[in-house]
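A student in our group prepared the protein record below, which I am reviewing. This is what I was given:
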Amino acid sequence: MRKKVPVLLGLVVIFFPGLVFGGLIDYYPEYDAWLALFPGEVDLGLPAPGSSGGDYWETRTPLIITFQCPQPGRNWQLSLNGNDFAAGNHIIKRQRMEWRNWTGSYQSMKPARQELILARSRDFPGNEWILHLLFLYFRLQLDQWEPAGEYASEMRVTLFCW
């Protein structure tokens, strides 16, 4: 058994690096589809002064999302959903946050509990077998002062295959 452990750990590091570095992997056997996120949480770090007098936070490292739904003729959709940011009794609305993929420009997120579509099968016709990879960066801009605190929000990334 001692000899098997290093080999198994080595295979996990090679084939599932997201698990090793705090990522999340989900597999859907009925569609042979899978979704992986790493790291498993997004940290916006410390605030920087903004041009409007408020502050802004921006991710330094992206949330990496990789997925595949390799069924010819099947549709799929990748979406992001979540809540407002809260610290005690203070709330910052989720639509104040912006997102971008890799080198694109920032776009506003939708209000809490409304789905944000990140990718759809119809945007990639004929690419059922391709491995899809997204690098998501987030930025939160505040035009005015907000009370200090550790604001947290739960976001969900969902892969639908049908």
Q: What stands out?
A: Confidence is low (pLDDT under 50) at residues 1-21.
